[in-house]
Amino acid sequence: MRIFNSLFNKKIIIGIHGLSNKVPNNLLEKWWIESIKEGLSVIGHPEIFFVFKSVYWADILYEKPLNIKEKNKKSPLYEDEPYLPGNPEDYKNLLGVKLKKISGCN
């Protein structure tokens, strides 16, 4: 029972992408994790541990993934929204905002 309880007490974040094409799953997961860590740091909780899992199906819907090395903006493989770290100055006004606590999350 102890193992069962420890599995369900972990903080797991599941990322589900939309229907448009995406970069390869390993890169998309990296971007998601970096973004989540950035957000946790901004709200003063950089130490929170979480497990991230993605639901990725762009490889089923599209023959080739988006490519961050593609420079031709007209190419169907051009990635026009790569992850970029935010500017901490942009978050200063958000720090005073009260966030709704979700039941069961610490």
Keyword list:
alpha+beta; 9% strand; 106 residues
Short description:
The chain is an alpha+beta fold and 106 residues long. It has helices at 2-8, 25-42, 58-61, 88-91; strands at residues 12-16, 51-55. The chain has one domain (2-94).
Walkthrough of the structure:
The protein is α+β, with helices and mostly antiparallel strands and 106 residues long. It has one domain. Helices cover 31% and strands 9% of the residues. It is built from four helices and two strands, in the order αβαβαα. It is flat and about 40 Å long. The model has no long low-confidence stretch (mean pLDDT 84).
SSE blueprint and pairings:
Blueprint: H1 2-8, E1 12-16, H2 25-42, E2 51-55, H3 58-61, H4 88-91
Parallel strand pairs: 1-2
